[in-house]
Amino acid sequence: MAIDLTQLERVIADKAALRRRAREQSWPEKVAMIERLRDTTRLAREAMRRALAEADKRNQGNPSCLAHAKWSPPC
Amino acid sequence: MHQALRVLNELVEDGVIPLYAIGGAIAASFYIEAQATADLDVFVVLPKAAAGLSLLTPVYAACKAKGGVVEGEHIHFGSWPVQILDPYKPLIEEAMASAVEVDFDGIPTRVMTAEHLCAICLDTKRTKDIFRVSVFIEQAAVDVEALKGILQRYNLLDRAALVPNWPEQVIHGNRPNPA
After folding, report:
1. Are B45 and B23 contacting, i.e. CB atoms less than 8 angstroms apart?
2. Is residue B5 classed exposed, middle or buried when 0-12, 13-18 and 19+ CB atoms within 10 A define those classes?
3. Segment 74-113 of chain B within 8 Å of chain A by CB
4. How far is B176 from chain A (nearest CA, A)?
5. Reading across the β-sheet that carries B69-71, which strands appear in turn?
6. Rounded to two decimals, what is the model's pTM?
7. Residues B112/B7/B87/B81 CA torsion (nearest 10 deg)
8. Positive/negative CA dihedral, B2, B3, B6, B12
9. Do A30 and B38 touch (CB under 8 A)?
């Protein structure tokens, strides 16, 4: 598959612009961003924990399902 | 954050603490792009007991009286958990003493200098701390010569080898040989 260099350049430029904007923010703006990121992460973690608990409840007694999967070292 | 800073300033005005300085990711975000964190690290010179032990109780009591809610190792002010830390080693004592006065949305506060934040990161040397130092260097937000001076004073200069973009390694090509 051929790589679309124009698209790649655009992605790199967008990323650079994002980082430049992030650097140009004032300190209170950065702190507000950290706060949003922290709260979103917490909500996502809680949602994932709830979903796993529900899946676990649904699949009780079915040890082959992913919710019961446990890693064990190779013999 | 505003409430936490106002309370910290009041603690100084009321004589509960002589001095405080913000460290960690929130202080780093004063100099470089925002760094993810869950809490606000505040280093506080704590009152000492007769036996020389630092006393957190009066600080916690004063924080609670001003609306702080103690939860585990944090005191919550609004949505911000604040961790009160004792300057437990000379490097941190120096960082606190040389912290700079800045302004957060009209509230005066003190943050550690970029050089001291980097030195503390190299002292702690967790992966995220090394990464933070490399961001400081990448964004030219730290005076590397001043940082080297601090690292030398605290016997930490060898930790610079952990930072992938440490300027000396790039200029002189003396990156330690992995073999």
Report:
1. no
2. buried
3. 79-80, 102, 104-105
4. 30
5. B69-71, B74-77, B80-85, B40-44, B20-23, B107-111, B100-104
6. 0.78
7. -90
8. negative
9. no
Q: For chain B, list the domains and their CATH numbers.
A: 2-112 (3.30.460.40), 116-172 (no CATH)
Work out the minimum CA distance from B2 to partner chain A, whole angstroms.
9
B140 in contact with A, Cβ within 8 Å = no
How many other C-beta atoms lie within 10 A of the C-beta of residue B178? 4
Among candidates B122, B131, B29, B41, which has minimal Cα distance to B86? B41
- Selection from B156, B114, B121, B157 nearest residue B136 by Cα: B114
Predicted confidence pLDDT, tens digits, chain B (179 residues): 888 999 999 999 988 888 999 999 999 999 998 888 889 999 998 877 666 666 778 888 888 888 888 888 889 988 889 999 988 899 999 999 999 999 999 999 999 999 999 999 999 999 999 999 999 999 889 999 999 999 999 999 999 999 999 986 544 445 555 54
Domain boundaries defined on chain A:
23-52
Q: Cβ of A35 and B80 within 8 Å?
A: yes
CB B49 within 8 A of CB B59: no
B49 CB near a chain A CB, below 8 Å? no
Largest CA distance in chain B: 58
B110 sits in which H/E element? strand B107-111
Strand, coil or helix: B35: coil
- What is the least distance, in Å, from the CA of B26 to any CA of chain A? 7
Q: What are phi and psi of A7, to 5 degrees?
A: -65, -40
